[in-house]
């Protein structure tokens, strides 16, 4: 018999959401709640804020959901800075672009560096919820170096 009160350790890992649009952050938070995803969400409005957090936190994030186009440090530069930082690189935090925009040029640029996916937010709240559920479920099940700690 499985103890339903047992806490999944992956539920404790924060989801990092980097997005300069506060309304989008609100919708993502609501979609995660509706999908019964219990992970805390750490919201950052730009890549520089997120990088500082990642370099200083003791938390181990489940996944980084990053918009592509943002003022200041965009998603591409953030991805490159994380990959160039030996400590952050070894943390093996999945980096997933999560954007409203997707065209051939953006996707090709995204895959010029280390990235674990490029997802669109969708056209409806149901699409958003479905996409977030897919991403989170995948990274909770996927083995990576942190799986063995």
Overview of the structural elements:
The chain is 42% helix and 14% strand. It has 149 residues and is of the alpha/beta class. It has a single domain, classed as 3-Layer(aba) Sandwich (Rossmann fold). Strands 2-1-3-4-5 form a 5-stranded parallel β-sheet. Helix 1 packs across helix 6 and helix 2 packs parallel to helix 3. It is globular, with a radius of gyration of 15 Å.
Highlighted features:
149 residues, 5-stranded parallel sheet, alpha/beta, Rossmann fold, 42% helix
- CATH architect. name: 3-Layer(aba) Sandwich
From the N-terminal CA to the C-terminal CA, the straight-line distance is 26 Å
Radius of gyration: 15 Å
The major sheet is characterized as: 5 strands, parallel
Strand portion, in percent?
5-15%
Read across the widest sheet, the strand sequence of neighbours is 2-1-3-4-5
Shape: globular
- Estimate the mean pLDDT confidence: 91
What string, H for helix and E for strand, traces the elements in order? EHEHEHHEHEH
In CATH, the homologous superfamily goes by the name Response regulator
Residue share in helix: 40-55%
Number of strands: 5
CATH topology: Rossmann fold
Instruction: Kindly name the structural category.
Output: alpha/beta
Protein name: Response regulator
Keywords: Phosphoprotein
Pfam family, one: Response_reg
InterPro entries: CheY-like_superfamily (IPR011006), Sig_transdc_resp-reg_receiver (IPR001789), TCS_response_regulator (IPR052893)
